[in-house]
Amino acid sequence: MSNQDETDKTTEKAPKATPENPLRKKLPEEVQAEARETPNGEAPQTSSQEPESEASESPEAEPEQPEPPLSGRQRLVNGLWPPRLSRAQFIVALLLFGLGFGLAVQVASNSDGGGALRGARQEDLVRILDELDDRTQRLEEEKQGLEDQRTELENSSDQAEEARKQTVEKEKQLGILAGTVAAQGPGITLTIDDTKGAVEADMLLDAIQELRAAGSEAIQVNGVRVVASTYLTDASGGGVSVDGNKISAPYRFKVIGKPQDLEPALNIPGGVVQTLEKEQATVTVERSDKIIVDALRPAKQPDYARSSSQ
After folding, report:
1. How far is CA 29 from each of CA 25, 32, 232, rounded to the nearest angstrom?
2. 122-155 helix and 259-266 helix, angle to the nearest 10 degrees
3. Considering the entire predicted model, what is its pTM?
4. pLDDT per residue over 149-192, tens digit each?
5. Rounded Cα gap, residues 188 and 216, in angstroms
6. Angle, CA 273 vertex, CA 139 and CA 244 arms, to 5°
7. Each residue of 186-237: pLDDT tens digit?
């Protein structure tokens, strides 16, 4: 047998290579074998018609979870912060703040004003109440006196004479109040010894106002008559000026009035005496059945005003 015949037989015995089906999916073993046979670790070329592997497919996106509902406190916080104010709301907020601040200051001042009476002893409160009752009684007596004068004028047979008598009496009273005539009667003597020089004009003015409120009818300070137009100022170099007349310590007040009303008015808690003693001044009050107020003020003739009865 010739060599040609042997070759033909060998060719017939060898299995024919099955053409690769491009639509067939490669098995894992075939993929690993091709990877080993590819030089330099290069991946084998695959047909463009080969479907993508399942590993390259992206997983389906998970559905989003709904956010939990907000509580009432969280909604309130989100509504208040960060603040979103308009111009009008800002102005209203400022006005409300000012109103609240004013009310707070008013309440604090009222609380401070009533602190002295809140801490006062029972006998001090009783004395203050008695003083208020005395003031009410004085006003009632003054009212009754005016009504009696009117009745006398209406019932008097000689109304002209009665009117003249009342006019003279009224002139004396007005002269005492105006400081143009001397006066005497029961009252007190108030002496303020100021060795430290701490007593100022406003403190003496407070004493005068307290005495007037207690029913004083005539006041004299160190030889200067106190009237309705009296003013006090701090003098240069120390001391106090009363209507332009400089006076110095000790300050001595001669006061005509009811002693039972005048002395308690000065000694009330937080009153004149306590205020002066805080300034290390020595204060003494003496009652007397006869106080003479003889300092006079010149009567001023008005330049333009005239009586309407002329």
Report:
1. 12, 5, 122
2. 140
3. 0.50
4. 777 777 766 667 767 777 777 777 788 888 888 999 999 999 99
5. 10
6. 80
7. 999 999 999 888 999 999 999 999 999 888 999 999 999 999 889 999 988 8
Phi, psi of 271 (to 5 degrees): -90, -155
Q: How many residues does the chain have?
A: 310
User: Residue written as tokens 């000012």?
Assistant: 98
- Do residues 34 and 50 make contact, with C-beta atoms less than 8 angstroms apart? no
Question: What secondary structure, in 3-state letters, does the chain show?
Answer: CCHHHHHHHHHHHCCCCCCCCCCCCCCHHHHHHHHHHCHHHCCCCCCCCCCCCHHHCCCCCCCCCCCCCCCHHHHHHHHHCCCCCCHHHHHHHHHHHHHHHHHHHHHHHHHHHCHHHHCCCHHHHHHHHHHHHHHHHHHHHHHHHHHHHHHHHHHCCCHHHHHHHHHHHHHHHHHHHHCCCCEEEEEEEEEEECCCCCCCHHHHHHHHHHHHHCCCCEEEECCEEECCCCCEEECCCCCEEECCEEECCCEEEEEECCHHHHHHHHCCCCCHHHHHHHCCCEEEEEEEEEEEECCCCCCCCCCCCCCCCC
Output 5-12 pairs: Cβ under 8 A, ≥24 positions apart.
none
